[in-house]
Structures are given as structure tokens and as C-alpha cells.
Write a structure and sequence with these properties.
Lyase, Ornithine Decarboxylase, Chain A, domain 1; TIM Barrel; nine-stranded mixed β-sheet; eight-stranded parallel β-barrel; 24 strands; disordered N terminus; binds pyridoxal-5'-phosphate
């Protein structure tokens, strides 16, 4: 398994104790393929282009800021996951990473299933034409209305997250006179995040039902007790974290989930046919990150489950996984226009762009790292340490904390921040009454907005006072 090279070392652009900065990249005009969507290139004239469409044209047509998504890359990643996991497993794209009707159509065409975790995501999935059978409904507090809609639509799975929800879903299936396949979401006592995972005996978090203290086993009993009311228990679900590079957390998770399958067989004489190990696979936000390929992940997870089932004397259940970030994250960059450039003597240069924490909250929220490139031209100017900041009324409004740009970066330039496909548009806000940017899908030299830019009229439409 490949792992990132930098967990303990200095972060890109950090001030080191000796007062030196980490080295700038050798060539500021180069676009590292680890962080850029597949068809992105810097053309001979110095302008960055995606699928043959250059950023000057994109900015002229769609304005800035804009999320620019490489449709072929998105589809290729879907296929890579599908093919890596093969016919005996299912890949559910986690819609919360980014969802629109066009995305739903691509997923459908490429043979993926789809996770939704709210009524709004369910609406979008159905409006995009995804067969309900290929949907799974998640969430720790699904409303009765969301449950009723999902059951009535015929979603393939509902992932149960609490004792109350078991009764709620069973009441709905009994009332509607239908059967519903369900999984029980368990917490396995693994906290996985990026470069480390912690295996604990208990979990202090809102999701799932704990394995260690018997809560998960009790949930299974309660689901089985409502079999006659329409609940079909088909599997156990576990999701251990996000932006994970270290597969050891999945190893512990799979072992503990298989342990529960074993206990269910012993107690109820029932071999559940499905196990879902969730999502959370990491992507490269900066060139220092080195994520695994889908085929490596599929092999690792498949081997772990097969080995654990073999040890327990269970037939291997059908495996499913739920990548969100790993599919959409690398496929898009955010295109910004530089408004001001403010060199702070002896510190760094602050480069202000026309978006910020309203279109990318991840830096402020998770201390996320990003890289950035000057996109409308190449430059031979020497590197200068910069911080890309937004236009919002918060000093924490940072897009790229530490990076290098050519020292001649100036107002009017376009900057592109790669790897913003996941959890940027989907977490975007209207802070400072900022209209949210469009998502522009580019393919074969043609762009189209799959989500249009919000307008001031959109903002005022909600203001009915
Ligand atoms: C968020 C989430 C995912 C997707 O996580 P990524 O980090 O985007 O892969 C998958 N499954 C569940 C249950 C989730 O909550």
C-alpha cells in the first residue's frame, strides 16, 4: 500500500525552525498529474486548458469563481472503481461529495450505485434517473417523511442507524404493506483519518450502533423481530472515516464486522449476504499525497474480507464500498480571478481571489491543504511564498494556506486550485450573500454548466419578509 510521504514532516511552505521555508517546486509552471484532472494541461502558449478548453474562454463564458469539472476523468474513475471491484461487489458513489442530475446520469451510465443521505439528495438522484433499486439511504436522523419517500420509491437499501429508526422504518413498511432491505450501521471502534487510525473499544460519535458493548447485536435482534412487518436484514455496514491512506483501519473494521456476522449466524442461524465497508479513501490534495489506485484498494479489501470469512467458516458476503471523494475530488479545479496582491514584508504575499470560504470551507473547517497554479499564463518570475485568501469578512477565510506562485502574480490573473471536486460545491454557502459558483463540465472541447451560478435574484427569492 502506498502512503503519503509527509505526515510527520513540514507542510508545504511551512516556516521551518531554522527560519528556512520548504523548497518551492522546481518548475512553477508544471502541473503535477497527481493533483490535476486527467485532461488538464498547460498549452504551448502557457494557458491552462481542460479537455481542450482554456481557462480564459471558461472565465469569459462562465465567470469566476467557477468549479471546472473534467467529465471524462469522472467517468474514467467510475469505470476504474467498477472494474476493480468486479461483478461480485457493488460501488456506491457517495452523493454528498457532489451531486447533480448530470452526475447521476454519468453514474447510471457507468454502472455505479448511489448513496444518498437526505431527502434533497434522494430527490436529485431520482430526478437524474437513477433506478431507486440502486440507491442506498443513509443518515443518523432520517425524518419520517424521508423514510416514507424512500420506502415508497423502492430504494435498494436503508442503512439503519438507531433503535428508534428500526421501529420507524418497520412502521412505514407495515403501513405501506411492502418489504424493505435494510443494513445495520455499526461502529467498529476504529477512527481512521488520513495517516493514522486508532482502534478503540468504544466510539464517542453520533453515527451507528456500537459493536463492543452489544448495541449492534441488540439492533440486529430488533430488526429481525420486525421481519413480519417488512424488514429484510441483508447486511452490516461500517464507515470508518475520511481521507484515509492507511488501509490498516479497514483491516480492523472488516475483522470486527465479520465477527458480528459470525455471532449472528450462531445466535440466529442466519448468514447475512452483504457487508459494506463504507468510503473514506484519500486523494492527493498536494503532490506530497500518494493515494492508492482502485485496483489496489479492491484487492486489499477483498483479501481481508475473504480471509476473515474463511477463518470464521462463513461464505464471503457480497462486498460494497462507497467512495465519494476518491471519484469526484480529483476531477475538478476551482477557477478564481485575482483581485488584490498584498506583500507582507518578511512574511508572505496575500493573494485575494473573488471567492473563498463560501466555495471552499475545507481549509477553514479541516485545516485542509491545497495547491494552486497561475492558470492564464506561464511565468518565468521567481517563486514567492503566498497565501490564497478569499473576499469574506473573516481572517480565517483561507483557500490555500501555503504555496508558491510566480512573484509577478497580479490582479486580473486567473488562479486554479486543483482537487476541489468533493465537498466544495456540496458544502458551499451564501456567506456574505455570495451567490454560489457554477459547476462547469468540460468534455471534448465543449463546456456546459451542469449547475448554474446563483444570482442575486436567487438570493432575494428566498427573502420574503
Ligand atoms: C461520507 C460517507 C462516504 C463517503 O466518504 P468519502 O470520504 O467521500 O469517500 C461513504 N459512506 C458514508 C456512510 C459516508 O458517510
Amino acid at each position: 500500500m502506498s502512503r503519503s510521504a509527509h505526515p510527520a514532516g513540514p507542510r508545504h511552505g511551512d516556516v521551518l525552525p531554522e527560519g528556512h521555508y520548504t523548497a518551492p517546486p522546481a518548475d512553477l509552471n508544471a502541473l503535477d498529474p497527481r493533483v490535476w484532472a486527467r485532461t488538464v494541461e498547460r498549452r504551448a502558449d502557457g494557458v491552462v486548458a481542460v479537455a481542450g478548453l482554456d481557462v480564459n474562454e471558461l472565465a469569459a463564458t462562465y465567470g469566476t469563481p467557477a468549479y471546472v469539472l473534467d467529465e471524462d476523468d469522472f467517468r474514467a474513475r467510475c469505470r476504474a472503481w467498477r472494474e476493480a471491484f468486479g461483478a461480485n461487489a457493488d460501488v456506491f458513489y457517495a452523493g454528498k461529495a457532489f451531486l447533480s442530475r448530470a452526475v447521476v446520469r454519468w453514474l447510471h451510465e457507468e454502472g455505479l450505485n448511489l448513496d444518498v443521505c437526505s431527502g434533497g439528495e434522494l430527490t436529485t438522484a431520482l430526478a437524474g434517473g437513477m433506478p431507486a433499486e440502486r440507491l442506498a439511504l443513509h443518515g443518523n436522523n432520517k425524518s419520517l417523511e424521508e423514510i416514507e419517500r424512500a420506502v415508497a420509491a423502492g430504494v435498494g437499501r436503508i442503512v439503519l442507524d438507531s433503535f428508534q429508526e428500526i421501529e420507524r422504518v418497520a412502521d412505514v413498511t407495515r403501513r405501506l404493506g411492502v418489504r424493505q432491505r435494510v443494513q445495520v450501521r455499526v461502529t467498529v471502534g476504529v477512527e481512521a483519518h488520513t495517516h493514522e487510525f486508532i482502534a478503540t473499544a468504544h466510539e464517542d460519535q453520533k453515527f451507528g450502533l456500537a459493536l463492543a458493548d452489544g448495541t449492534a447485536a441488540e439492533a440486529v435482534r430488533r430488526v429481525l423481530a420486525r421481519r413480519d412487518d417488512g424488514l429484510d436484514l441483508v447486511g452490516i455496514h461500517s464507515h470508518i472515516g475520511s481521507q484515509i491512506f492507511d488501509m490498516a483501519g479497514f483491516e480492523v473494521s472488516a475483522r470486527r464486522v465479520v465477527g458480528l456476522l459470525d455471532a449472528i449466524r450462531n445466535e440466529h442461524g442466519l448468514e447475512l449476504p452483504e457487508i459494506d465497508l463504507g468510503g473514506g479513501l484519500g486523494i492527493a490534495y498536494t503532490p506530497e499525497d500518494d493515494p492508492s489506485e482502485p485496483h489496489e484498494i479492491a484487492k486489499t479489501l477483498g483479501d481481508i474480507v475473504a480471509r476473515e470469512c474463511d477463518r470464521a467458516g462463513l461464505a464471503p458476503p457480497r462486498l460494497s464500498v462507497e467512495p465519494g471523494r476518491a471519484i469526484v475530488g480529483p476531477t475538478a479545479f476551482t477557477l478564481y480571478r485575482v483581485g488584490t496582491v498584498k506583500p507582507l514584508d518578511g512574511l508572505r504575499t496575500y493573494v485575494s481571489v473573488d471567492g473563498g470560504m463560501s466555495d471552499n470551507i475545507r481549509t477553514a473547517l479541516y485545516d485542509a491543504e491545497y495547491s494552486v497554479a497561475l492558470a492564464n499564463r506561464a511565468s518565468q518570475a521567481p517563486p514567492t511564498l503566498i497565501r490564497v485568501v478569499g473576499k469574506h469578512c473573516e481572517s480565517g477565510d483561507i483557500v490555500v494556506r501555503n504555496a508558491y506562485l510566480p512573484a509577478d502574480v497580479a490582479p486580473g490573473d486567473l488562479l486554479a486550485v486543483p482537487a476541489t471536486g468533493a465537498y466544495c460545491r456540496s458544502m458551499a454557502s451564501n456567506y456574505n450573500h455570495t451567490p454560489r459558483p457554477p459547476v462547469v463540465a468540460v468534455r471534448g472541447g465543449t463546456g456546459r454548466a451542469i449547475v448554474r451560478r446563483e444570482t442575486d435574484e436567487d438570493l432575494l427569492r428566498l427573502d420574503v419578509g
